[in-house]
Amino acid sequence: MSKDYHVSIKDMAESERPREKLLMSGANALSNAELLAILIRTGTKETSAIDLSQRILSASDDGLRYLADCTIEELSQIKGIGVAKACQVVAAIELGKRLAMSSAKAKININSPRDIVKIFMEEMRYYKKEYFKIMLLNTKNEIISIENISIGSLNSSLVHPREVFVRAIRKSAASLVLIHNHPSGNPKPSNEDIKITQRLIEAGKIIGIEILDHIIIGDGIYISLKEISMI
């Protein structure tokens, strides 16, 4: 087939066009490229929306996982993807993340580390930087809120007890859980992770707000410092 050969979506059989296929067969019947094509809506004079979608998915060896933490700037550098299309994709990905978190919080009672991991894994496993979050709980272990504390390599200057506990005090939290990710995918705690955890536990004892656990998220795996008896 010629390198310049191009089939537009309107030239396809109606049953093979992404939007019509979605209407007839449901979202599960569509490939990743077809779903993405519906989001970006149009192609260019030389490239169909499906071809552009495949170009996005081929931009990284990570395939679909690339979209989890891509930026508007990164997407805009792909030929045929302008700022408008990049914004549409990033907005859709963010909605998916928020939906996953809101659904998890609505359905899961916090009784174990696995309950916490269900909420955070699919979002945090793909982060390219370290994010440190806290989950604030009431006396019934119900979630009050989830707060972002820092972004960047974890150290004591970024994660200061003041930043953690001022949020907990303002929202009358009875206890809290620490959560952060390792972009390497390996959740093994570092010496700095352990030092920060111990420091926050001691501060919590003085203030009267218990640190229940520190969950470290890797790529599909996690470590609970409570489960390994480090809390």
Radius of gyration: 22 Å
User: Strand arrangement, largest sheet?
Assistant: 2-1-3-4-5
What's the average pLDDT? 86
Secondary-structure element order, as H and E? HHHHHHEEHEHEE
Quickly give the structural class: alpha+beta
Extract low-pLDDT stretches. Answer: 1-5
Number of helical regions = 8
Beta-strand portion reads 5-15%
Helix content estimate: 40-55%
Task: Please provide the count of β strands.
Answer: 5
Distance between the ends: 62 Å
Give the biggest beta sheet.
5 strands, mixed
What characteristic shape results from the CA principal axes? elongated
Structural description of this entry:
With 231 residues, the protein is α+β, with helices and mostly antiparallel strands. The chain is 41% helix and 15% strand. The protein is built from eight helices and five strands, in the order ααααααββαβαββ. It has helices spanning 18-25, 32-40, 49-57, 72-76, 83-107, 113-124, 161-170, 191-207; strands at 131-137, 143-151, 175-181, 210-217, 222-224. Strands 2-1-3-4-5 form a five-stranded mixed sheet, sandwiched between helices. Helix 5 packs antiparallel against helix 6 (113-124). The termini are far apart.
